[in-house]
Amino acid sequence: MSVLEIRNLHATVGDTAILKGVNLTLRSGEIHAMMGPNGSGKSTLSYIIAGHPHYHVTEGDILLDGESILDMEADERARAGIFLAFQYPVAVPGVSVANFLRTAVSNVRGYTEAEKNGKGDGGGVIGSNLMPMREFRRELTAKMKEFNVDSSFARRYLNDGFSGGEKKRTEVLQMAMLEPKFAILDESDSGLDIDALQVVSDGINKLATEKRGFLLITHYQRMLNYVKPDFVSIFFGGRIVMTGGPEVAHMLEEKGYKWVEEELVGGMVPA
Ligand SMILES: Nc1ncnc2c1ncn2[C@@H]1O[C@H](COP(=O)(O)OP(=O)(O)OP(=O)(O)O)[C@@H](O)[C@H]1O
Ligand SMILES: [Mg+2]
C-alpha cells in the first residue's frame, strides 16, 4: 500500500500566498474527492504535487511513502508514480498522441533512466531510450479498446483541435498507460456530455484498484454518482476546512459555499 501525505503545505506564486496549510492524506485503494470555490487553490495544489516549477513551497512537506518528494523534478515524481490530469490540457501540435504516450511511458517505466545511467539497452533498440515500438503499439491498441478511445486518436496531435470531451478521454488513456500510484484528476468531468461522463467515469472506475489512490477535483456532485468517493473534502481559502463522506458533496450542492465561510472559517476568510 502507498501513502501520499501532504503536511501543512504553504505555497506562493510570485508574492501571493495561495496554499495556507493544506493537510491531506491519500492512500492506495481510496478515492478522495475535493470540492471548493473558484480560485481557492485546488489546481495550484495539484500542480505543486506534480512538481510544477512555477510555485514556491514556503512551509510543510509532501511525502510519498514517508519520503519527501519536494526536491524531485516533475519527471522524477512521475516515475515515482504521481500522475496529474490537467484542468486545461495543453495542445502540442506536431506531437502525436502515440508519440507523446510512448515518451511518457518510457520515462515512467525507466527506459530513459536506464539509458542515462548506461545500464539499459535502450529498451531493445540500440541508441534509443524508448519502449520498443511493437510492444508499445500492442499495449496502446489494447488500452484504446478497453477504455473506449477511438483508434484514430493515436495519430492525431496531442489535444490539438480536440473537443473538451476528447481531451478528457485521452487523459484517461494516458492514466491507463502510465499506471500511476496516485492520480490527481483536475475537473476531469468538466464539459463532458452524458455519454462522455459515463466513458470517463467507467475508465476511472476500472483504474481504481487497491493499488491506486485518486484525488478527484470537481465542482459538481454529478460525477460522484458514477465514481464513488471514500472521502469528500471542502477546499476553501487555500486549505481543507472539512472532510467527510459522500454526504458532504450533496450538502455543498444544496447549500453552496456561503455557510462554509460562516461556519467553518468563522467569517475570517483569508485574503
Ligand atoms: N501562475 C499564477 N500566477 C498568478 N496567480 C496565480 C497563478 N496560479 C494560480 N494563481 C492564483 O491562485 C489562485 C488559485 O488558483 P487555482 O487555479 O489554484 O484555483 P482553483 O481552486 O483551481 O479554481 P477553479 O475552481 O476556478 O479551477 C487564483 O487566485 C489564481 O489567480
Ligand atoms: Mg482549478
List keywords for this structure.
single chain, 271 residues, alpha/beta, Rossmann fold, 2 domains, 6-stranded mixed beta sheet, 4-stranded antiparallel beta sheet, 12 strands, binds adenosine-5'-triphosphate, binds magnesium ion
CATH topology of the largest domain: Rossmann fold
Q: Which structural category fits the helices and strands?
A: alpha/beta
Under the CATH scheme, which architecture of the largest domain would be assigned? 3-Layer(aba) Sandwich
Strand count: 12
Strand order of the largest sheet: 6-9-10-3-11-12
Q: What low-confidence regions span 5 or more consecutive residues with pLDDT below 50?
A: 120-127
Work out the helicity level. Answer: 25-40%
Q: Class of the largest domain in CATH?
A: Alpha Beta
Shape: globular
Rg over CA atoms: 19 Å
> How many domains, in number, for the residues?
2
Please summarize the sheet with the most strands: 6 strands, mixed
Mean of all residue-level pLDDT scores: 90
How far the N terminus sits from the C terminus, by CA atoms, comes to 38 Å
User: What compounds sit in this structure?
Assistant: adenosine-5'-triphosphate, magnesium ion
Q: Strand-residue fraction?
A: 25-35%
Helix-strand pattern, N to C?
Answer: EEEHEEHEEHHHEHEHEEEHH
Number of H/I helices: 9
CATH superfamily of the largest domain: P-loop containing nucleotide triphosphate hydrolases
